[in-house]
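Lecture 7 notes. Example A: sequence first, then its structure tokens.
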Amino acid sequence: MAPRSTGRADSGDIEIDLVELLTDIAGLAADKGKGVAIYIDEMQDLGPDDVSALCAACHELGQQRLPLIIVGAGLPHLPAVLSASKSYSERLFAYSRIDRLERSAADWALSAPAAEEDARFSDEALAAMYAATGGYPYFVQAYGKVVWDVAPGPDHRLGRNRGRPRSRA
């Protein structure tokens, strides 16, 4: 076993460590003329210490103009979660609210990945999915997965009761 050594980003304090880790990564990317993007889904579920560390790291990255971006997705109360952590967070992030998808966008969200698998949703199935989901992105994704999983073959059709998503709530 190799002897333990200390270095950067291993203090045990998540805020200090994340700032050091991300600035080191971004510095290396800058040296190579590249950029880094980190994607975080369900960002509102991060713990308070993690949110605080993330805000501190984004602040430092911005101050140094380093090529690293955090792209977070979350529920509508995410800006409040960030603001509760660091008062300056509202200046760190740009917020885009995503609401219901138009019918064409919901159809594309189902059809494009299916086409990559040489499968398709029938027009009837797409209409039924839009009616069932109301265009809410989460439901389009969740119901689309259920239908995909129960479909009998590459032509994804909704039968009378087969493949119709059911809520467990």
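Example B, a different protein, same format:
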Amino acid sequence: MKRLMPLFIIVFFLFSCSQSNESKAQKAVKKYLKENMNDPKSYEDVKWSSVDTVFAPYKGTEKSLVQLYKMDSLISELKKLSILMVTNYDKYKTYYKSTDSILNQHRKEYQLDSANYKEYIGYTITHIFRAKNGFGATVLNKNTFTLDKDLKEVISVEDKD
């Protein structure tokens, strides 16, 4: 038992020294505010939200753009088929059904992929604080900060006032 006691102490210190996501996010936000505020000395901490994960939207990904291009091409084909309708209605009907069916398939695939898409990009935290503005008046601010995956750098700030 005496041999295990130092091991327990080392393990305890290792786990107690690691920072929580909240404290890492708060540290990164405070660093950002210190570098970007009009008067960093006037900063007063009011309230923090909990840290939340952020996922990138499906729209704009390479796969979504390919799907949209395919759908756009099919829509163009359907428009071109309207000329065929005048000359050969039976042929038009056959082409229209197959093209429309493929288009609907692509739409369903896009919707399914969009609903299931989850690309993790980082975290957000909302912070309420007081600080002096450019005119020297102390104002209450409410901002949502988006941070990188490592919780070390602020990527963007959204004013929630």
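Note on Example B: The radius of gyration is 28 Å. Residues 89-116 form the longest helix (28 residues).
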